């Protein structure tokens, strides 16, 4: 019957998945080794043990009947046949992933569920507008919004805690793709009552003030540390907080100064919670990321289209 997934279709999906997953995973391992040139790095990227990577590569080479790599002191080097196989393997993996997604899309009873990680203030991310546009779409997705931290993004998405999410800064992973939504300056902020004393201080004297710092893995923390380090100074850090709004409240309570992304700094300044006294010579990017293997799913495509509309992004994704 049209519009309803039959038992035969379900069986076909399971057959495709069970019969071919092992071989496809072997090709994915081959591609990871070819890109990294190293078994250890490939195993780290795939979150698989190195012995398992070596074993699957050996099985693939035995099935093919020829060697894909030469083991050298500098790592794994593709053989001539391995280089020929590279593009073929990439095409096969991409076609398989597309076929599997199409097969799964036959399930019209799917809940289109998506866990989305939020790394900062809802107003900055324009979540209310995001929700409204999602509801108004022809086939809205069901999503759950989860508070996350930028420094934990790779861990959260590869462990399936989230399916996609917002994060600050850059990440390096061949499993993840992302789009840049905005770029913000980083502002030095202080309590309103300190402005007259602080706004004309040198960097050396600023470093001696008490500072409320974001957690050490946070991109803000690295940018701020680099700013002071480049000037030859080390700021007096009195505490680490992973919540920008809480940092703003502590600054307002005259606990210390901090560095915040311009949107939230300006928002808190309007509320008379803090004063912006300067910007550091750095910018921070706000991004939305997802697993590459899920890039063409309906849920991710829908979310990206909504974000394109909100942020006026190019529609190439």
Question: What would your notes on this structure say?
Answer:
This protein is α/β, with parallel strands linked by helices and 317 residues long. The protein has two domains: 98 residues, Winged helix-like DNA-binding domain superfamily/Winged helix DNA-binding domain (Arc Repressor Mutant, subunit A), CATH 1.10.10.10; 207 residues, D-Maltodextrin-Binding Protein, domain 2 (3-Layer(aba) Sandwich), CATH 3.40.190.290. It contains 13 helices and ten strands. The protein has a six-stranded mixed β-sheet with strand order 4-3-5-10-6-9. A two-stranded antiparallel ribbon has the order 1-2. Strands 7-8 form a two-stranded parallel ribbon. Helix 1 crosses helix 3. The two termini are 34 Å apart.
Biggest sheet statistics: 6 strands, mixed
> What is the level-2 CATH architecture name of the largest domain?
3-Layer(aba) Sandwich
Residue-averaged pLDDT: 83
Q: Provide the domain count.
A: 2
- Write down the Rg: 24 Å
Helices and strands: which structural class? alpha/beta
How would you spell out the order of helices and strands? HHHEEHEHHEHEEHHEHEHEHEH
**In order across it, which strands form the biggest sheet?**
4-3-5-10-6-9
Helical amount = 40-55%
The first-level CATH class of the largest domain is given as: Alpha Beta
Overall 3D shape: flat
């Amino acid at each position: 019957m049209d519009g309803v997934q039959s038992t035969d279709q379900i069986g076909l999906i399971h057959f495709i998945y069970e019969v071919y997953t092992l071989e496809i995973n072997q090709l994915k391992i081959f591609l990871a080794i070819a890109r990294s040139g190293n078994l250890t790095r490939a195993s780290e990227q795939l979150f698989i043990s190195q012995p398992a990577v070596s074993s699957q590569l050996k099985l693939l080479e035995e099935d093919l009947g020829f060697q894909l790599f030469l083991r050298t002191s500098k790592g794994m080097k593709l053989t001539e046949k391995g280089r020929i196989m590279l593009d073929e393997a990439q095409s096969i993996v991409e076609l398989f992933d597309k076929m599997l997604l199409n097969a799964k899309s036959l399930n019209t009873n799917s809940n289109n569920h998506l866990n989305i990680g939020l790394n900062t203030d809802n107003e900055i991310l324009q979540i209310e507008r995001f929700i409204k546009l999602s509801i108004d779409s022809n086939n809205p997705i069901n999503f759950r919004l989860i508070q996350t931290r930028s420094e934990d993004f790779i861990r959260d998405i590869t462990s399936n805690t989230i399916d996609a999410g917002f994060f600050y800064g850059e990440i390096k992973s061949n499993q993840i793709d992302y789009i840049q939504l905005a770029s913000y300056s980083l502002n030095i902020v202080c309590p309103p009552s300190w402005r007259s004393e602080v706004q004309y201080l040198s960097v050396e004297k600023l470093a001696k003030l008490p500072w409320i710092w974001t957690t050490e893995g946070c991109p803000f923390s690295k940018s701020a540390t680099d700013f002071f380090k480049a000037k030859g100074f080390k700021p007096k850090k009195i505490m680490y907080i992973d919540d920008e709004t809480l940092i703003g409240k502590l600054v307002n309570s005259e606990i210390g100064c901090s560095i915040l992304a311009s949107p939230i700094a300006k928002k808190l300044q309007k509320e008379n919670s803090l004063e912006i006294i300067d910007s550091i010579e750095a910018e921070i990017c706000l991004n939305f990321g997802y697993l590459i293997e899920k890039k063409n799913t309906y849920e991710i495509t829908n979310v990206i289209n909504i974000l394109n509309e909100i942020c006026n992004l190019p529609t190439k994704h």
